[in-house]
């Protein structure tokens, strides 16, 4: 985060940035030595973008860990139940229907769309899987069906409004270029609630990982844990995609890396995924806005460059475990 604050089109001095941040702490009075322009760059451009990037990366990573814990599958990601497709439809609708530049309406519509997509998948999966003992598998299939349906709706909207394709694709590819303080404030309460709920369910996910029958014998309601974790993880995902667009692979790569480094206990995986996800997206965003400066790469492209090879590694490791 400090590196992201310092590096950019206008490089800022390390000492000045640290002093300027300390000066904002209550009862601390420090002269940063930064000019007015440098302070504006720091507090109006860099700091909200850095905070938003940390929130988005952390939310996607901890949501991915939650999904993987519920479905007991390291290949599960935060977009499994239709959050990405729902957000895409919501954002596309606003872009093609609302005249002008509805910048603040796009995140709100994407948030509502993501929540609606997950709700539809859960309702469909719960109804179809009732009584057959295959709730988790049915829920995944419902998520696939809902995602494909919503993707078809979005494609239809794009084809019917070809003049807006550039704006639609710029949102889909992801980025933090429009970060500001109102956007940070908009998602902060939801991000806090979803993160706290997920962190509090680490021990229960460990119990659930041994199997539903064993969890039930220990007094843990697998259905209730699954529902709470899915709701919290879906809320975290909706917050992230609403303000950043579709950024892939963070929810798969980061939790898997944490398990490699620190073991499989979700009491460890969840908080470390939150921290490592924030750091990973900060580095990706730093690369995206500096490698082709003064231009900017789509953030989703950068994470895909890193995540796609890592995903292949996960697939190979998972296949070896199955074969064994």
UniProtKB/TrEMBL annotation:
The chain crosses the membrane at residues 46-67, 79-98, 104-124, 136-157, 169-200, 227-254, 266-287, 299-318. It is a multi-pass membrane protein. It is found in: Cell membrane. Its main location: membrane. GO terms for cellular component: plasma membrane. Keywords: Cell membrane, Membrane, Transmembrane, Transmembrane helix, Transport. GO terms for molecular function: transmembrane transporter activity. Pfam families: FecCD. It comes from the Bacteria. The keyword Chaperone does not apply. Belongs to the binding-protein-dependent transport system permease family. FecCD subfamily. This is Iron ABC transporter permease. It comes from Actinomadura rudentiformis.
